[in-house]
Structures are given as C-alpha cells and as structure tokens.
Amino acid sequence: MSDVPALIDIVEPAAPVVAQAGHGGWYAVLALCVLLVALAVFIWRKRRQPVRLALKQLRALRQKLHAGEHAPHEVVLLIALEVRHGLGVKHLRAEVPPERISLQDQARWPEFMRELDRLLYQHEGELQQERVVALFAQGEYWLKRYARRSALRRMEV
Description:
- This protein is mostly helical and 157 residues long.
- The protein has a domain at 48-146.
- 69% of the residues lie in helices and 0% in strands.
- The protein has five helices and no strands.
C-alpha cells in the first residue's frame, strides 16, 4: 500500500505534436492574408499620395486667395506649378498633353491651357475672381484624374 501515494504525483504526458499542428497552418494562412492586405493598402496609399498632397495644396491656395495673402496672378501661377508637378511634366503645353490622358480629355486639355495662359497674362484689374475659382476646379479635375508621383521638386507656398 505504500506504492499508492507515489502514483498520485505522476504528471500526465503532453499532447502529441501532431494534434497541435492542425491550427498552426490556419494561423500562418491568416497571418499571410493580413500581411498581403497591409501591403496592398500601403502600395495604394503610396500611389495616391501625390494626388492627396496636390489637392491639399490647391485647397490651401484657395484659402490664401480668399484671405488675401496672395494676389490672383500669384495664385494662377501656383496652380499651374501644382498641376505641372502633379502630372509629372516639365512643361505645360496646349499642343502636347501629358502621356496618359484619355482621348476625350485630350480635347479638353488645350482649352484648359488657353484659359491658364489668358489668366496668367491678363492685367491685374481685369482678372476676375470667378475665373480663378473656375481654374481651381479645372486643376482639381486634372489632378484627380491624372496625378502621379513626380521626380520634380514641389515648390512650397
């Protein structure tokens, strides 16, 4: 009878490793899926970042125009620079639209450039606030549709 109390202290054997490995595969697949989704979000945000920055810059320009911090001619020039930078081109020309522009927008591009030129070279007294605001809307349109990462340096306003 002296052997019975010694048997009570025996610890049960550990579960087999094969039984625990069944859930490890699912955890690895789940971790891989989370990693792929995070990578996709990161790439999407990096790709859309120039658009967000350019639009943010245009909104700041609009506020500065309404606050009277910039003259309308300065704002028109800064809109042109922001569109140039956002589209990733060295020069804005009516006869040479940026590369990725669709066929329907290729017809709109020269009109946008002519309006931009008219506003740039108009006398200060003749420059109307409504036309500058319309130029903001057109600049936002081009940036939302065709902005991309550019090697050109951004000018700080």
